[in-house]
């Protein structure tokens, strides 16, 4: 069962590495221009780590990813994504995903990021892509959507959330130093989060 998860994580790493320039460019506008560099460095290590090891469970696999991210990404995003994956590692099942397990996984990521970074939705951070995606899953559960429909909606909401960071003023992280000048730019962390959510959904339904 860890094989499928490894495949998804490997693809996720490829997408982040492919988007290194894009993420760095976004971070140059409202930060210090290293988000793509930070993330690509970390996910290159993740690829090596997971492909060079055997894991008995998804929990072990995700914990290994979390530790690698915490020790290699750096910046604000390293500990935040690291904690998200660490929290996910505590709840991820080995069985096929269900709407309930996906909600639990998404909510754990949000909890981990908020525990570390103390940000709320609307502060122009990675949470602005992730929270709407998790909310979409919760809504799909209530509506009784099937898993594929739920995941497609989740992806759309993550993208809308990412784009919604453009008119926001940053009140957390480095971009907050710019005050009103942070308005008009898409948040780099919300962009990397969207890319990860998109990749997971696409890999589950390819
Ligand atoms: P740094 O700002 O230290 O250079 P990165 O460039 O790698 O780190 O990451 C910047 C991203 O981190 C931002 O675009 C934002 O999405 C995210 N971020 C910063 N602070 C927080 C926070 N407190 N909570 C959630 N996300 C945050
Ligand atoms: Mg930066
Ligand atoms: Mg930095």
Description:
By secondary structure, this protein is an all-alpha fold. The protein has a single domain (2-204), classed as DhaL domain (Serine Threonine Protein Phosphatase 5, Tetratricopeptide repeat, Alpha Horseshoe), CATH 1.25.40. It is built from nine helices and no strands. The two termini are 18 Å apart. One magnesium ion binds next to loops.
Write the layout of secondary structure elements.
Layout: H1 2-18, H2 20-30, H3 35-51, H4 58-72, H5 77-91, H6 99-117, H7 127-143, H8 147-164, H9 188-204
Helix pairs in contact: 1-3, 1-9, 2-3, 2-9, 3-4, 4-5, 5-6, 6-7, 7-8, 7-9, 8-9
Bound molecules: adenosine-5'-diphosphate and magnesium ion (2 copies).
The number of helical runs is 9
User: Main β-sheet: number of strands, strand sense, barrel status?
Assistant: none
Within CATH, the superfamily carries the name DhaL domain
Bound molecules: adenosine-5'-diphosphate, magnesium ion
The total tally of domains equals 1
CATH third-level topology: Serine Threonine Protein Phosphatase 5, Tetratricopeptide repeat
Shape: globular
Count the beta strands.
0
């Amino acid at each position: 069962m860890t094989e499928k998860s490894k495949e998804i994580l490997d693809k996720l790493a490829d997408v982040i590495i492919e988007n290194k320039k894009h993420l760095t460019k976004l971070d140059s506008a409202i930060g210090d221009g290293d988000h793509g560099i930070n993330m690509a460095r970390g996910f290159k290590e993740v690829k090596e780590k997971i492909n060079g090891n055997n894991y008995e469970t998804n929990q072990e696999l995700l914990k290994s990813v979390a530790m690698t991210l915490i020790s290699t990404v750096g910046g604000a995003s390293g500990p935040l994504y690291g904690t998200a994956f660490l929290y996910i590692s505590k709840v991820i099942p080995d069985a096929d995903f269900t709407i309930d397990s996906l909600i639990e996984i998404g909510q754990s990521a949000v909890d981990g990021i908020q525990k570390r970074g103390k940000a709320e939705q609307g502060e122009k951070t990675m949470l602005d892509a992730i929270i709407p995606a998790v909310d979409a899953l919760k809504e799909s559960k209530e509506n009784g959507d099937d898993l594929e429909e739920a995941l497609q909606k989740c992806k759309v909401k993550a993208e809308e959330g990412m784009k919604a960071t453009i008119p926001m003023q940053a009140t957390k992280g480095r971009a907050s130093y710019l005050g009103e000048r942070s308005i008009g730019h898409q948040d780099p962390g919300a962009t990397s989060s969207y890319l990860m959510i998109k990749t997971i959904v696409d890999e589950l339904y390819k």
